[in-house]
Write a structure and sequence with these properties.
The chain is α/β, with parallel strands linked by helices. It has helices at residues 2-23, 54-58, 60-75, 109-121, 150-153, 209-219, 261-269, 347-350, and strands spanning 45-50, 82-87, 129-131, 170-175, 181-191, 197-203, 228-233, 275-280, 293-299, 305-311, 329-334, 339-345, 360-361, 368-371. The protein has one domain: Purple Acid Phosphatase, chain A, domain 2 (4-Layer Sandwich), CATH 3.60.21. The protein has eight helices and 14 strands. Strands 1, 2, 3, 11, 12, 13 and 14 form a seven-stranded mixed β-sheet that branches. Helix 4 links the parallel strand 2 and strand 3.
């Protein structure tokens, strides 16, 4: 056991060194013609989106990849003028599993939570990050109950850039199913490097009615009329660009007290004129990338475009039992005129010369722009 632990630490160090070295290289690879990410406009800023981490966590061999992804984000803070990091949930594969079967993972639930925490801890005090919970973060393996270890590992005081006592971006929380105020349901005020005001909601997996009503009451406050509201929730959009109509895992004690993507659209997003952006994950319809991403735009009650995005990658790099997702990240560059350029990049694939030509996704579903209204 001690020897295995030592080998894992050595692997972590070696991969981390590779990522550290390439993070300082901003030139073009002569063989592939691609360069590392860089801002198109020096006045822009970047939001980083992290897809479902679950498959990185359930196998010990994969945890080093996710750890290095977080390190790369940290190292790119200045180069990309990163202002905010969002993760779409499923922070683990099995919330409270005691005995992994070795097929769908070799880590207990507690080991997965510890690994997830260790990876995100690298961003504490460096960048504000917002997480939401997914179905695999509840119950034993997959939302059998509303119980989760999430609050035991992710707390208000972890990150000084989030902690309100230290002037962080967190402004309030709603009670979870156990009656405790946790980061499972929270809202944040974020002022971008360009001075734009964002109101960001992070809502639990398949939010309860109480949570939706709470978020609606916050969004309707007069003081937020000039904010750009964003919803971060785990399950919302399918890869066919249609909003999800049902909760596919109705295992809760009160299965009726859940809200699908379509429910959230009509109860919360469309009726509030300040919502302009929704980010979600969860869906992995195939090992192919197209089965794990989606995008659509609809008008809210104020006539403003609401851009709704699905970004996941958990089945890439070998499927359900593969490497976790090939290291894919979404980089959103926000410009002063409201234009947002979406790009999809893998620092993991870039770190190896033999895969560097696959480190960028340039298809229309992965490299596109949309525009926010001011």
């Amino acid at each position: 056991m001690k020897q295995k632990k030592t080998l894992f630490i050595l692997l972590l160090i070696s991969v981390s060194l590779v990522f550290s070295c390439i993070s300082f290289f901003h030139g073009q690879d002569t063989k592939t013609g691609f360069a590392l990410p860089a801002l198109e406009n020096s006045n822009s800023w970047t939001m980083v989106l992290i897809p479902d981490p679950q498959t990185y966590m359930k196998f010990k061999r994969n945890q080093v990849i996710f750890h290095s992804m977080m390190q790369w984000i940290k190292m790119q803070k200045e180069n990309l003028n990163i202002g905010l990091v969002l993760c779409v949930g499923d922070l683990v594969e099995q919330n409270a599993l005691d005995k992994p079967d070795g097929i769908n993972g070799d880590q207990t639930g507690t080991e997965q939570w510890k690994a997830s925490k260790a990876a995100f801890r690298q961003l504490d005090g460096v960048l504000p990050y917002i997480l939401c919970t997914g179905n695999h973060d509840y119950g034993i393996s997959n939302s059998e109950t509303r119980e989760t270890q999430f609050p035991d590992y992710f707390n208000v005081t972890d990150n000084s850039l989030v902690d309100p006592v230290k002037n962080g971006i967190l402004k309030g929380m709603c009670k979870n199913a156990q009656g405790n105020r946790t980061l499972e349901n929270a809202y944040y005020e974020f002022i971008s490097p360009l001075g734009r005001k964002f109101l960001i909601f992070s809502l639990e997996w398949s939010p309860r009615n109480e949570v939706v009503f709470w978020a609606d009451s916050i969004a309707n406050m007069k003081k937020y009329e000039d904010h750009i509201a964003t919803l971060l929730t785990h399950s919302y959009l399918d890869s066919d660009n249609e909003r999800l109509l049902t909760n596919p895992y109705p295992k809760y004690l009160n299965a009726l007290d859940t809200n699908s993507g379509e429910d959230l659209w009509f109860k919360l997003i469309k009726p509030n004129g300040i919502f302009q952006f929704v980010v979600a994950g969860h869906v992995a319809n195939s090992d192919d990338h197209a089965g794990q991403v989606g995008f659509r735009t609809d008008k809210n009650i104020a006539g403003k475009d609401v851009h709704q995005m699905l970004f996941n990658a958990q089945r890439e790099g070998g499927g359900w039992h593969g490497n976790g997702g090939d290291g894919w990240l979404r980089l959103l560059e926000f410009s002063a005129d409201g234009t947002v350029h979406v790009q999809t990049f893998s620092p993991y694939l870039w770190s190896k010369e033999e895969t560097r030509d696959r480190a960028w996704r340039k298809m229309e579903i992965d490299d596109f722009t949309f525009r926010l209204s001011f």
